[in-house]
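4.2 Preliminary Data

To establish feasibility before requesting continued support, the project team ran the inverse folding procedure on a target of 581 residues. The structure was first converted into the token representation described in Section 3, and no sequence information of any kind was made available to the design step. The complete token record follows.
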């Protein structure tokens, strides 16, 4: 009996020992005796990645922020740009956390962020993407005080503070052109001006809505971005933590710790640089200075994809705008244009590249050029250029509108003539007289229904589309045109408008996203309204301000389409202020 009791007691002690070992292994009670404090300690690298906003458009709307900081590189000056207004584009960066042990209080949870000695830690890595990566917090505070490129001024009209671009920054303009020279997307091209801040930063990636879409399996969905640094007045390239890396002139620019998908440091770009995404897609960089004193009138450009207007569905940017003053090989001609793509942006990009080349090529012929100058009519030039552009475009399942305004200067007067296919429109106002410069080529317009009726295939009552398209004239869409003869690429050519340099005149071009919500009459009223509110000439580029004001009005009226605006101001006061830039 004693032997049995000893066996049971031994077995019980063994079980207690096993349970004690399990308890020690699971609970680790010694951590309470050796820990320096009892706050919860979390390592930055252990914070879950879903806290990072993958969509740049969502970044400005995050609410649980630390001290608010604005990214000067991506700011946009618009009439409604209050300090707390969200931006569709642009990066908001946070200040770098020093290695000292600050406590960040979130409700009742105290986080003590610690870091390895070899790793820089940014709030942007867990809450928001960082842009500036090599300035400690003291340096960034100093930058915020001494190098701000924006001034805050009280606007009594809107009862609030607004951001205004410093005058010496406005004086420095730059145009960036990117062209894919190798890889699956070879030939694709993208242009942007440093003043078109509503589209900055410019994104490069494999998926929409990247500004330069590179359809290469080695390219990440969001691979890299390019931004205009207002403090340095330089274009800068940043790798966005891509899988296969980014090279600039064969040198890596991605973060040294590629496994963590950290963003790289911003690297300055120059003309002639070659950006390599992955291993095969190479992009040629061309940067030109926009010396605005060369343009003898006010110029303002503004655009916005209006990306969240369809029930949260993102809209890819299919509008492409461009201008050339002077046109290559000429010193008296300039071209301004908008192409609005459908089915994708490829056709619009091609047309915006080919059409100016065709116009410049035709005007390089001295006989044709002199004929335009003597007869004050460029109808043949515009018609031939659009016809040749259509012939060169090889887009069977994508198409675009094309609206171009050709301007020329004979020292005493300006002359303007417009050509278009599609529904991107242009209106002018000369000394109070409204002039329609384009024709609406939607299927619902009377002129198009009449044209289609005259070719013997009239539309039925209530029929508003051809093969699913609401346009009857466009560039590209070769397959549609082969299947249905009612489609056309024949342009409408306006009459020549004579603009005396002493007159008050302006031209407004815009894609259909603008005209869908604002009529030409209302647009002209808005221009005059903004001109009356503008500051005295010489203080700022009023044309740029008017373009952004018109864009903000379309946004307020909740347009559901990409919107691009080009505003030309021929007012003598505007020319005086613009020539000072």
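Position-by-position output of the design step:
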């Amino acid at each position: 009996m004693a032997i049995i009791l000893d066996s049971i007691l031994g077995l019980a002690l063994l079980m207690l020992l096993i349970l004690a070992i399990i308890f020690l292994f699971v609970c680790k009670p010694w951590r309470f005796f050796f820990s320096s404090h009892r706050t919860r300690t979390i390592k930055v690298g252990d914070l879950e990645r879903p806290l990072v906003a993958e969509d740049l458009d969502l970044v400005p709307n995050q609410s649980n922020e630390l001290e608010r900081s604005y990214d000067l590189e991506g700011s946009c000056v618009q009439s409604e740009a209050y300090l707390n207004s969200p931006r569709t584009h642009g990066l908001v960066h946070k200040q770098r956390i020093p290695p000292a042990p600050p406590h960040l209080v979130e409700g009742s949870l105290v986080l003590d962020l610690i870091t390895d000695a070899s790793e820089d830690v940014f709030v942007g890595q867990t809450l928001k993407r960082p842009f500036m990566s090599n300035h400690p917090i003291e340096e960034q505070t100093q930058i915020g005080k001494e190098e701000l490129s924006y001034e805050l001024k009280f606007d009594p009209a809107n009862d609030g503070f607004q951001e205004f671009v410093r005058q010496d920054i406005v004086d420095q303009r730059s145009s960036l052109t990117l062209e894919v020279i190798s890889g699956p997307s070879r030939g694709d091209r993208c242009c942007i001006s440093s003043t078109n801040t509503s589209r900055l930063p410019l994104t490069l990636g494999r998926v929409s809505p990247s500004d330069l879409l590179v359809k290469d399996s080695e390219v990440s969905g969001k691979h890299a971005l390019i931004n205009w640094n207002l403090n340095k007045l330089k274009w800068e390239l940043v790798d966005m933590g891509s899988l296969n890396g980014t090279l600039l002139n064969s040198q890596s620019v991605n973060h040294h710790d590629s496994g963590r998908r950290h963003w790289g440091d911003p690297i300055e770009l120059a003309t002639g640089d070659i950006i390599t995404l992955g291993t095969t897609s190479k992009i040629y960089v061309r940067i030109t200075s926009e010396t605005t004193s060369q343009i003898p009138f006010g110029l303002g450009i503004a655009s916005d994809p209006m990306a969240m207007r369809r029930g949260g569905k993102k809209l890819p940017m299919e509008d492409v705008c461009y201008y050339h003053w002077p046109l290559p090989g000429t010193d008296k001609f300039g071209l301004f244009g908008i192409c609005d793509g459908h089915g994708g942006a490829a056709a619009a990009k091609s047309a915006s590249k080919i059409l100016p080349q065709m116009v410049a090529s035709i005007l390089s012929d001295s006989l044709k050029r002199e004929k335009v100058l003597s007869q004050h009519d460029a109808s043949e030039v515009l018609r031939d250029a659009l016809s040749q552009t259509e012939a060169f475009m090889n887009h069977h399942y994508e198409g675009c509108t094309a609206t171009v305004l050709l301007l020329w200067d004979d020292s005493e007067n300006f002359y303007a003539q417009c050509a278009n296919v599609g529904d991107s429109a242009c209106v002018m106002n000369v000394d109070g007289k409204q002039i329609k410069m384009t024709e609406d080529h939607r299927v619902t317009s009377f002129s198009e229904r009449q044209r289609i009726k005259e070719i013997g295939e009239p539309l039925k009552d209530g029929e508003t589309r051809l093969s699913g398209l609401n346009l009857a004239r466009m560039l590209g869409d070769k397959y549609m045109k082969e299947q249905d003869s009612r489609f056309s690429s024949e342009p409408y050519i306006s009459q020549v408008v004579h603009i005396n340099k002493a007159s008050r005149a302006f031209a407004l071009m815009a894609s259909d996203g603008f005209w869908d919500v604002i009529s030409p009459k209302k647009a002209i009223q808005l221009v005059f309204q903004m001109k009356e509110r503008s500051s005295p000439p010489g203080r700022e580029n009023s044309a740029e301000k008017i373009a952004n004001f018109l864009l903000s009005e379309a946004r307020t009226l909740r347009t559901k389409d990409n919107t691009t605006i080009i505003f030309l101001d021929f007012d003598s006061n505007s020319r005086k202020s613009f020539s000072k830039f």
